[in-house]
Amino acid sequence: MNLTVKDMAALxxxxxxxxxxxxxxxxxxxxxxxxxxRFDKNEIASWLEDNRSFSKKVKMDAPSIEDEEIISxxxxxxxxxxxxxxxxxxxxxxxxxxxxxxxTRIQDxxxxxxxxxxxxxxxxxxxxxxxGVALPHPKTFVxxxxxxxxxxxxxxxxxxFEALDHExxxxxxxxFPKSERRFLRIQxxxxxxxxxxxxxxxxKQVSPYDKTISVLFNKEAExxxxxxx
Length: 229
What we know:
- The chain is of the alpha/beta class.
- 45% of the residues lie in helices and 17% in strands.
- The chain has helices at residues 5-12, 16-24, 41-54, 73-80, 91-103, 111-124, 180-193, 197-204, 209-224, and strands at 2-3, 31-33, 36-40, 82-86, 128-130, 133-134, 149-159, 169-176.
- A hairpin with a 2-residue loop joins strand 2 and strand 3.
- Helix 1 (5-12) crosses helix 2, helix 3 (41-54) runs antiparallel to helix 7 and helix 5 (91-103) packs antiparallel against helix 6.
- It is globular.
C-alpha cells in the first residue's frame, strides 16, 4: 500500500511543506508515480523505526560537514563488494555468513558485535523492504569509517525475513555509513533506486558484478540527474 504526501504529513504530524523538504533532502524513502510522490508503507514502517533510534542524534534537515561526500550507490558497492552464493539458513545465521564474507574485504570489522547490534534492530522490526530485498543494519552504529560503502549479498536460497509483503528474501544490502546521518540518506537513495524496474530486476536475477555496477551507474545518472550529497 502506498501513502500520499498528505498521508505522510498526517502520520508524522508535520506540514506537507515539511514532507516536500524531506523529499528534496533525500531524508525519507519515496518514489514518483507520474508527477505525484508516493511512500511505500513497508519502507516507511522500517524508516520510522530507524528514526526512533537515530533522531535524538541527527537533525534531519540541518547541513553538516559530514555531508561532504557524493552519494553514489554504485561507487559505494564498488568499495564494499558483491558476494554471491551465501549459504542460507536462519535469519541470524545468514546475516553472520554475510558478515564473514564481507570481513574478507573489510578486515577491521567486529562481526560478533555487529551481528548482535543488527539482530537487536531486526527484533524490533524486520528490515525487509519487499520484493525479496532486506537492508540489515544496527539499531545504532558504534563505529564509522572515513568513507561510506555498501556490501551487496546474494543468498543461495530465499529465506523468511518477516517481510510485510510475505516474500522470502534472497538479497541483502549492508550499508556501512561514515555517520548515522549519512546512513539515513544513503538508505533513502538506495530505496529510491530499488523502485526502478530495471534495477530491481537486475538485483533479483543475481546479475554479474560488471552488469550490476553498470546498471546502477546508468540509473543513478538517469534518476538523480546531478550528484547527490
